[in-house]
From TrEMBL, chain A:
Transmembrane segments: none annotated. This is DUF3343 domain-containing protein. Residues 101-178 form the DUF8182 domain. Pfam families: DUF8182, Se_S_carrier. Residues 22-86 form the Putative Se/S carrier protein-like domain. Signal peptide: none annotated. It comes from Pseudodesulfovibrio alkaliphilus.
TrEMBL record, chain B:
Residues 5-29 form the UPF0033 domain. Belongs to the sulfur carrier protein TusA family. It comes from the Bacteria. It comes from Pseudodesulfovibrio alkaliphilus. InterPro entries: TusA-like, TusA-like_sf. This is Preprotein translocase subunit TatB. Pfam families: TusA.
């Protein structure tokens, strides 16, 4: 089986373990990005999600975390001076976090959008054919670096980008890898 | 052989995909792609160059772009 000869069928919102997850809400997107980086580096299983409208505080990103790790996570964030505005359990369907990703299949090509950024890959070859969206100054530079590269060889936009668009593109890039690359 | 892809009114990545599909289907010749946003123009040009095809010209008229590409 070729590297890109299959696609994993993944759908959003089907995590049976959702009830043991919580959401960390922050004042702004920069804090979400910092908190996610700190928590991932510390080995916590966190993910960036869109908060449900009922708990939105102005920032359209939130960090989903395992409730059982809540105390350790809050301590770590306070030490790093990135305390969340609130930490809430995901207890009901109305509080289900919104998946940031939108996947569209164009036949030979697959597009993943995360927030305002889109990445498109040729499914047969795994080559990135397009990067679009956003309005940040590093988007053309990121596009120039990524287009024409194979998904498994391209540099991560999260490492090379410097803006929120670069961060969103990084999320789309990682989701595309999850969709296309064998695990 | 000459062909035109009218991708005006489409949002990315569709202009890029239509251009790539059209030129991939050609053995040789010229393809003209029409788009109506700066971002689509940039993205089509970038994709064409990444594929190793020749970008002959790009012209703009009242917010619409005409991208000429040749293959073979």
């Amino acid at each position: 089986m070729g590297l890109f000869s299959f696609l994993k069928q993944r759908t959003s919102g089907q995590d049976p373990a959702r009830a043991d997850r919580g959401l960390l809400l922050f004042e702004n997107t920069s804090e979400v990005i910092r908190a996610e980086k700190i928590l991932r580096a510390a080995g916590f299983a966190v993910a960036v999600k869109g908060p449900p409208p009922e708990v939105r505080t102005g920032c359209d990103l939130a960090v989903e975390y395992p409730l059982i790790e809540g105390l350790n996570i809050l301590r770590r964030l306070e030490e790093a001076k990135v305390p969340p505005l609130d930490a809430i359990p995901v207890t009901g369907p109305l509080l289900t976090p919104v998946d940031l990703y939108h996947v569209k299949d164009f036949g030979d090509h697959l597009m993943v959008r995360a927030a305002n950024m889109k990445i498109t890959v040729d499914k047969r070859t795994g080559v990135i054919v397009n990067v679009s969206g956003g309005g940040c100054p590093d988007v053309p530079w990121l596009a120039a670096r990524l287009i024409g590269q194979r998904l498994d060889e391209a540099p991560s936009p999260r490492e090379t980008g410097h803006t929120l668009c670069g961060y969103a593109l990084g999320l789309a890039f990682e989701e595309m890898k999850r969709q296309c690359l064998p695990s | 052989m000459s062909k035109t892809v009218d991708a005006r009114g489409l949002s990315c990545p569709q202009p890029v995909l239509e251009a790539l599909n059209a030129i991939a289907a050609m053995s040789s010749g010229t393809l003209v792609v029409l788009v109506d946003t700066e971002a689509s123009k940039e993205n089509v040009c970038r994709a064409v160059e990444a594929k190793g095809w020749t970008l002959d010209s790009v012209s703009e008229d009242r917010g619409e772009y005409r991208i000429a590409i040749s293959k073979g």
